[in-house]
Amino acid sequence: MTHTTTELTFAVNPSDHPLAAAERERLLADPGFGKVFTDHMALATWSSGQGWHDAQVRAFGPLSLSPAAAVLHYAQEVFEGLKAYRHDDGSIWSFRPEANAQRLQRSCRRLALPELSVDDFVGSLKALVGIDQAWVPAAGTGETSLYLRPFMFASEAFLGVRPASVVTYAVIASPAGAYFSGGLKPVTLWISSNYARAGEGGTGAAKCGGNYASSLAGQLEGNQHGCDQAVFLDSATHSYIEELGGMNLFFVTRDGKLVTPELTGTILEGVTRSSILELAKELGLEPQERRIEIEEWKDSARSGEITEIFACGTAAVVTPVGELRWDGGSVDHRGDGPAIGEVTSTIRRGLLDIQYGRAEDTHGWLTRLA
Ligand code: COI
Fold first, then answer.
1. Residue 87 to residues 126, 238, 344, 366: CA-CA distances in angstroms?
2. Domain span including residue 74
């Protein structure tokens, strides 16, 4: 079995120990997020001499890595996140995979890693999902999907600080339900004023592991104050809202605007974020990308100028924000309103309907994987 792309051919070597169907179905019934993995993974190697080669799909399992591998020391690594959705007719689709492929290329340029072509990226997904398609949850089971995690890292064993000359690309897949345990309910956010996630000229716009590592101390501080997530502010003035570390933020105003922090180079260019900006126009909302001060959030939530707030990302889809807390204060913009606001619900539904094939794909956002 092979899967051919423009440049790479992923040779498919089926696992000799796939999980029994009954056990797989048991796991698919309540997968949680990021805990369960399919039978296979895709791999490819790059070297400065040969370029990309050795593309294959083989049994999911531990990778053999030298303790001197550069990624373990200097964090030369990037990743992506996207999902495979099963439609009612059994076919399997992904949402804007070329946008993820292009973002991976931008991340690679920032982290001095070799680029993978869009065709090879999509080809790797097709090769993996093709053999693991039984792991894509059945249509009509809420919002479960197969989360796909492509990633690339410096696998060369070398301790000098320079771009690695041997690099590994891999894709693993994990059946997924709601990102937050407890399902869809409003999250409470903590303003991280002691820790920034990214700075000007840094890697904030790249999807690299280091950004997520740098968000953890703020996240922990938030958890210690009873919050689910931390909101990061710009590192220069500590006054403008950036993002949550793993999600972008949106604000719905009383006069029908849908506002999100503009991309300043320190914020991740979310695929869900850009899709929502498109959908907003169709829903009669006025999308606005601009800088938003944290004080504006506090004041507008109190005055009722902001009516709804939500976070978004591939993993979290659209998640309502209930409350904002900081050292010495808090604001809850919901008042007596429903836990999930009307606009938040409509956007969430609109996005999921396209992804699961329940609404017409007028944007050409879907790509068939199997
Ligand atoms: C995603 O939404 O796909 C991400 O990579 C973010 C992470 C919090 C899971």
1. 16, 44, 23, 11
2. 11-176
Same domain for 87 and 122: yes
**Which two structure tokens, joined as six digits, stand for 76?**
């030369």
Q: What is the separation of C-alpha 323 from the centre of its chain, rounded to a whole number of angstroms? A: 23
214 shares a domain with 160: no
218 found inside a domain: yes
CATH number at 326 reads 3.20.10.10
The three-point CA angle 191-195-198 to 5° equals 105
Domain count, the chain: 2
Residue type, 325: R
Could you tell me if the CB of 314 is within 6 A of ligand 1?
A: yes
246 lines ligand 1 (CB under 6 A): yes
Q: Which ligand 1 atom is the nearest neighbour of the CA of 245? A: 8
Report if pTM > 0.85.
Answer: yes
Residues 210 and 333 in one domain: yes
Helix axes 342-355, 271-282, angle to 10 degrees: 110
The CB density around residue 295, as the number of other CB atoms within 10 Å, is 9
Nearest to 171 by CA among 128, 117, 223: 128
Identify the pLDDT of residue 6: 59
- Whether 1 is covered by a domain: the verdict is no
Pocket test for ligand 1, best of 79, 215, 228, 247 (most atoms within 8 A of CB): 247
How far apart, in whole angstroms, are the C-alpha atoms of residue 241 and residue 249?
Answer: 9
Q: Residue 79 Cα, ligand 1 centroid: separation in angstroms?
A: 10
Asked if residue 195 is part of any domain, the answer here is: yes
| Closest by Cα among 100, 78, 298, 119 to 203 | 78
Going from the C-alpha of 52 to that of each of 15, 47, 65, 115, 224, the distances in angstroms are: 23, 7, 18, 9, 45
Positions in the chain whose pLDDT score sits under 50:
1-5
Three-state DSSP at 340 gives coil
pLDDT value at position 199?
A: 95
Does residue 115 lie within any of the structural domains?
A: yes
Indicate if ligand 1 lies below 6 Å from the C-beta of 245: no
